[in-house]
């Protein structure tokens, strides 16, 4: 069973930056694609960004392109989400997810492993 632990959430002002981290209890992420999803109160979970670990191929939601960047550190087995120019509408619980495979899938149902989530709140 893969365990994912997110960290780095918090309360910031509009225009600020945050970096989320996701560490996993696996020896290597090589067979996986990793994604970030978010869920705001009263809304459905939505895709944010994903990366294929072995190739670095990425996929981003239109709403975060140019502001958020997903990356991975192969030495630390950690995936990051650098969030810049944050907006109040980015407020949500952010979840790290992992899936076996080599596609940076946008659908949450394609991911087998999920973290507990970390809250990001952006004030105006």
Give the biggest sheet: 7 strands, mixed
- The chain-level mean pLDDT equals 94
Shape: globular
Number of strands: 11
Supply the helix-strand structural class: mainly beta
Number of helices: 0
Low-confidence stretches: none
Measured as a percent range, the helix fraction is: under 10%
Strand portion: over 45%
**Nearest-angstrom radius of gyration?**
13 Å
Distance between the termini: 40 Å
Summarize the model shown:
The protein has 124 residues and is an all-beta fold.
Can you give a write-up of this model?
This protein has 124 residues and is mainly beta. 0% of the residues lie in helices and 50% in strands. The strands form two sheets. Strands 2, 4, 5, 6, 9, 10 and 11 form a seven-stranded mixed β-sheet that branches. A four-stranded antiparallel β-sheet has the order 1-3-8-7, with no helix packed on it. The protein starts with a strand and ends with a strand.
Task: Please render the helix and strand layout as text.
Elements: E1 4-7, E2 10-13, E3 18-24, E4 32-39, E5 46-52, E6 58-60, E7 68-73, E8 78-83, E9 92-100, E10 113-114, E11 118-123
Parallel strand pairs: 2-11
Antiparallel strand pairs: 1-3, 3-8, 4-5, 4-9, 5-6, 7-8, 9-10, 9-11
Which terms summarize this structure?
124 residues; mainly beta; 7-stranded mixed sheet; 4-stranded antiparallel sheet; globular
